[in-house]
Structures are given as structure tokens and as C-alpha cells.
Amino acid sequence: NTCNGYLLATTISPEAPATDPARLYNFNRGTNAYSLQTDLRYKLQYNPSLHLEKKEAAAWHEVFTAFYAFTGRLLAAEEAQTASRPREADWSSVYDSWKEVLSAVYRGYSGNVFEAWTIPCLYVVGKYLRIFAIKADEQAAASQRESGLAFGELQEEDAFGAASKSEKLEDAARQINRIFALCLGDRSPLEDSRKWALYYTANLLFKTYFRLNSIPLSKNILRSLRASASDTPELSSFPRAHQVTFKYYSGVIAFLEEDYASAEELLTFAYESCERRATRNLELILMYLIPTKMLTAHRLPTRQLLQTSPTLDRLFSPLCTAIKRADLRAFNAALEAGEDEFVKRRIYLTLERGRDILLRNLFRKVFIAGDTEDVKVEGGGVGAMARRTRIPVREIAAALRMAGATEIDDGEGGVDTDEVECLVANAIYKNHMKGYIARDRGIVVLSKTGAFPGTGV
Amino acid sequence: MSGAAQPNAPTSKLQPSSDSSDSTKQPPATKPAAAQLDEDDEFEDFPVEDWSKEEEVGAQQQQQQGGNNTHLWEESWDDDDTSDDFSVQLKAELKKMEGGKKG
Hints:
Chain B: It comes from Friedmanniomyces endolithicus. Chain B: Belongs to the DSS1/SEM1 family. Chain B: Component of the 26S proteasome, a multiprotein complex involved in the ATP-dependent degradation of ubiquitinated proteins. The complex is a heterodimer. By secondary structure, chain A is mostly helical. In chain A, about 60% of the residues lie in helices and about 5% in strands. Chain A has helices spanning about 1-10, 25-30, 35-45, 55-80, 90-110, 120-145, 155-160, 165-185, 200-210, 215-225, 240-255, 260-275, 280-295, 305, 310-325, 330-335, 340-345, 350, 355-370, 395-405, 415-430, and strands spanning about 300, 370-375, 380-385, 390, 435-440, 445. Chain A is elongated, with a radius of gyration of 31 Å. Chain B is mainly alpha-helical. The longest helix of chain B has 18 residues, at about 85-100. At the A-B interface, helix 1, helix 2, helix 3, helix 4 and helix 6 of A face helix 1, helix 2, strand 1 and helix 3 of B. Strand 1 (about 300) of chain A pairs antiparallel with strand 1 of chain B, so a sheet runs across the interface.
């Protein structure tokens, strides 16, 4: 029956379908404030083809009454917008009037009048509440700037302690949270439960909290979902769009908490289950999955993977090439070049840790470039040739210097061996290298087997 | 129980009032500008709510690789290139140091 639910939801959609672009205009112009009530009554209650119960008709009556008022505001705002009078477009009142629609719809559910198959209506009210909130906030910010209310450092907001710059979006978050709670608390049997709107609503909240920079609030949502896991359908029974979006946000939240193991699992699922033509979303998933994989599995994206997106290619290719070649100069340059974008997406610090892998690769190169030596065999004599496992610290220092590791310079043209030993010790500690430093002899003694775990030597 | 056959009946049955001043121009199409709302990490709405396993990225890979995901991720070191500039220079430098040490 969900098919009907989506169709029903289109009746209260702020976006007219492509096949009927003038629908809202016609709806609004088709009646007026005086005859609205009567018109609605005829269409809903006295309409022989609808068979609505009295309470249901009344509830829808309220919804469409609010919707009518809303279309008036929306049309006015859009008209101002298209007539190049954007400052007159009152998105704030569009938001307020849409909120009335949301409230009417909410009441239909809280009064247990609307059945569960209609929940796509909840999707519509939630989705557009966010959109209008963002527009309203943007407009408020723009008009503040334009009316010159920012006097150098002293902002209008500071002076009067007035509303924050995301007033409407914060309000939207509260409203959508009410919807979330409404769905969570539904005790009906699953075939008829509002719980089916849970993940869609949770995803709306994630998007909102992220935009508001209040990501920790997302954890409350995750907690609530986990707490009611026993009487909520499995995530896998929800539409894939809900699943993938949820896993993406859960993955990013885990990433930001440095729970990289969970992040890898969640983001991998999101990636593999994603609709293959959703290129932007795939790009977003990989934006976090790539740094994650670098840390957890020490694996880098292939050329093939990076070429699926120009943005990913630009951001990550130079970095990955530098790591593989142990080219510290190139790594630093790549990190700096992408710094602004990395920081904005909060992946800078994680990517910086790629330096550890790079250094391991560098030490590995020193090992491979080194001389082979005879291996003593039991009972005397000489056995096979193997790479020497004792490497002078000064040779490692030389390699570091060649690669552009400025941190080992002692400021006087020489090398700070303590720094070098520190880098080596770090690599050993992180299990990138197996061995120990014989400080008195100035050499690094590597394990005869598997000196560089996971890399084949 | 709600035998709602055509739920979108209310909006489609209302007739536009004959407003002569408007009859000459097109009624404006409504389109809240959702397009400008891209925040850098905000997931986009999928054009469809659900899709089959065949439409997933994972399934596509399976077909191409015969079950292997190896074309996505690779090792983080580069063994193939011991002949790259850096390795060659490094070897030379180390040889020089070894020679100096022994001398």
C-alpha cells in the first residue's frame, strides 16, 4: 500500500510534478479564504468516491486548510524571487506556514487517525521543513548583511543577543525530533506502524545536525534507535535509500569519533549497496572511506577507483602516489594543497597519519637498497644471501634527508640523530617495523623474518 | 478500511477561477529552489527509494571482477619500482656511506 502513500504525499508537496507545473498555483487560485472550508468539505467529507471516516476527513481538512495558506505564502515568495526582488521573498513566513502543515499532519498521527500507509506524508513535511528553514535562515543572514547591521566586530546579534543565525533550522530540528519520537513510540503492530518512518526521519536529523555543526546530537538518535532495536524492524527491511543514507551518516559519525573499525564497516556497506548511478553520494562515501581504509587496512585507493570522480582524483591521487613512493616532499605538498578542503570535511588529521605509512615505506626502501650479506649457517660455512638486518642510523638519516624530512635537521646543516631514532622508534611501536635500536652502536637491528609486517619482506 | 481510491482528488478537481488578467500569461510553475542547498557532506536524496541488488555498486563489481573487489584497493607500498629515481639515488648514497665507513 506504500505506493498509494507516496501518491498521497504528492498532494501536499511544495513541488508540483513535472506533468503539472501549475498545480499549486491552480490550487491556490481555485478557491479563496471564504469558500475554502466549504470546498474542502465537499471534496473530503461529502465526496462519495473517497469514503473517509468523519475523524479522518476532519484531520485532512485541517491539513489542506494549512496547506492552502502555505501555497499563498510560497507563491508570493517565489514570485518575488523570479521577479528579481529576492529581498522581498518572505521565506520566513513560508517556513512558518509550512510548519502549520507539519503540525496538522502531526496531529493526524498523534491522534491515531492517519494509518501507517500514509507515512510518506511525514517524509514530505520533514524534508521540506528543512529546506524552507535553510532558505529562511539564509535570507535572514543576507538581509542583516545588507542592512549594514554588522559594524565591524560588533554584530547585531552580539548587541542584542538576538536569534542565532540558524534560528529556523534549529526549530526545524526540534520539529523533526518530535516526529522521530512520535514514530519511535508507536505501539501498533508492525504492519501498521509509524516505525517505518524511523530511518528516513533519523536521516533528516543527521543532515540537520551536521549542517548545524551539532554532530554530537546525532548520537542521541543512534542511542534511541539502539534502545528500541528489539521492537523495531531490522534496518535491512527498510528501503535501500534509507539504509544507505543511514549507514553513511553512522559511518561518518564513527569516523569523527575515531572509531575507524566501525567506520570502515559502515561506509563499506554504504558504498557497496549504493545505487550505482548516484555519483555524488558515492563520492561522499569514498571521501571518508579512503582515509579510513588508509588507517585500518593500510590500503590505498587504486587509480581506477579514484578516476570515478574528478574531485576524488584531484584530492587523493597526489597524496597516495607520494605515500607509495615514500616521497615526503610530495606528500607534504599534497597535504598542503588540499588542506582547506580536507579540514572542511574533517579528514585532514586522519590523512596526516598517512605520513606514518610513508615513513615505513621509506625505511623499507633503505632495507631493500642495502647490501646483502652472507647468512651464517649452523655448523659453520656460509648459507644463502640475505639482506643485512643491521642498518646504521646514519644511513636512515641520509634517506630521510633525501626524502625531504626537514624535522631531522639540527639547524646547523647536520642531522639530529635523536629525531631520527624517534621516527624509527615510532614505526616500531606502531608495528610497521620489527626490530630495535641499539643506541650505543648507532644501528637499527631488524627482525630476520618479516621486518616490515604485511609488506612481503 | 480507508477505501481512498484517488486520494489526490481534492487538488485535481478544483477548477481555476476565470481570472481574465491572468488568462494571458502562464501560471507560474512552483519549484522551491532545493538545488542550491548543497552543503559539502550532505547526502543527496536518491531519485528512487529502493533498487534491486543488480543496481548496486557491489553487484557491478562482482560482474566485472568475477567476485573480487581488488580493483578498488591496493597495497600502500610500491615494489615494482626499485628503478625509480629515488631508489637509485638512495642506493648510490648508501654505497657511498658504506665505502666511507670502511675506509
